[in-house]
Design goal:
alpha/beta; Leucine Aminopeptidase, subunit E, domain 1
């Protein structure tokens, strides 16, 4: 099952368990700890008093009380002292202990904060890297949905030291980068990102203007419509095409002959269409399964690398005509480590294409061109640019 990053309040997460970044007394505090205690109610504090504390790097389980989550897993992260006092070892232990408790309770979903990266001062990029590596190792052996909950996107820092050139790459290829604060831009991005490959760019532009917000200026859209040739602007695409004029000898035939002539032509057209349909290219599902075999991968290895839920993969495998979302198609292309030509071919099978006018697509292109196929890392960047994450 997948590892996903989401911006939300962890106390509102509807999952089996949430993780509390607690102090060693377990008696509440500031930040995430205080918010969880306040939302859960006094019953949580009473249970924590009975437990009597928790050492750094360990974790304990309590009920969720008034929280949407059934359980709370309390873990005590390390305070950052420069990285030379066992901080990384303690932080990784927090993640392992929490995940082990969740697995022992047979939980299907658990939501974490970025442990120790708040008041305890652990560098966010290092905390995120440790989290990703521990969750990845856990999910290789377990089926569970793991959420990383970020309360404030402004506090989320990507690992710019690892890929310092990605922002310049995006700026060079997408002129609208860094403009997500503009009203309507996210809506436009979603339209482009999910639009099928066969939808022309001018149609996207025209319909985006046509369905603009009430306070947006429609003059450009109306002018574009007015500039169309009259017969094109008023053409009724729902009306059947006119039949070709009958040849002179056809008019001499009886009504029954004319009827036969008309329907023979229609039958010939139908036969041509059926012949064309009998030579369809392989579907997305067929290409995916073929590539898994060619790469010598197990199904479970592929869908886990793609950050895809096992149930969704089963649907794709059992339905030769299954049409995935664009993010799912891209996720499988990355899991299979396809080069750019193969990845674009797989997307075409699903009816999509990568576009230089989409921030998400430019980010995906960057990673494929650089042969970096780590979906957790890619999702980190997509999240920082307010884009839809890969996987399901």
């Amino acid at each position: 099952m997948p590892f996903l990053i989401v911006r939300d309040d962890i106390t509102r997460m509807k999952c089996d368990a949430i993780v509390n970044a607690a102090n060693s007394t377990l008696l509440g505090g500031g930040g995430v700890d205080g918010a969880i205690h306040a939302a859960a109610g006094p019953g949580l504090l009473e249970e924590c008093r009975r437990i009597g504390g928790c050492p750094v790097g360990d974790a304990v389980l309590t009920r969720g009380y008034n929280l949407p989550a059934k359980y709370v897993i309390h873990t005590v992260g390390p305070v950052w002292h420069g990285g030379q006092q066992g901080e990384e070892r303690a932080l990784r232990s927090c993640w392992r202990r929490c995940l082990a408790i969740a697995a022992k309770k047979r939980l299907s979903s658990v939501a974490f904060p970025l442990i120790s990266a708040g008041a305890y001062g652990y560098p966010r990029d290092k905390a995120l890297q440790a989290a990703e590596e521990e969750v990845r190792a856990f999910l290789e052996k377990h089926d569970m949905t793991v959420w990383l909950v970020i309360y404030d996107r402004a506090s989320f820092e990507t690992s710019s030291a690892r890929f310092s050139d990605i922002r310049a790459y995006i700026d060079d290829r997408y002129v609208a980068a860094h403009t997500f604060g503009r009203a309507g831009n996210r809506r436009d991005e979603e339209l482009r990102y999910n639009a099928p490959a066969f939808l022309p760019e001018e149609d996207i532009r025209f319909h985006r203007k046509l369905f603009a917000r009430p306070d947006e200026d429609l003059s450009d859209a109306l002018a574009e419509k007015a500039a169309m040739p009259e017969e094109e602007a008023h053409e009724d695409f729902s009306a059947p095409a006119p039949l070709p004029a009958a040849a002179p000898q056809a008019r001499e035939h009886s009504p029954l002959g004319a009827f036969r002539t008309k329907h023979t032509a229609a039958g010939a057209a139908r036969g041509s269409i059926e012949e064309a349909l009998s030579h369809l290219d392989e579907s997305f599902s067929q290409m995916l399964l073929r590539k898994i075999d060619e790469k010598g991968m197990k199904d479970s290895e592929c869908y886990k690398k793609a950050n895809i839920d096992r149930k969704l993969f089963s649907k794709i495998r059992s339905d030769v005509h299954y049409r995935p979302s664009k993010t799912t198609a891209i996720a499988f292309a990355l899991a299979l480590e396809l080069d750019m030509a193969e990845a674009e071919d797989m997307l075409r099978k699903a009816g999509y294409a990568l576009s230089q006018s989409s921030t998400a697509d430019v980010i995906i292109t960057y990673f494929i061109e650089h042969r970096i196929y780590d979906i957790m890392l890619i999702n980190e960047y997509l999240f920082s640019y307010d884009q839809q994450l890969l996987g399901a």
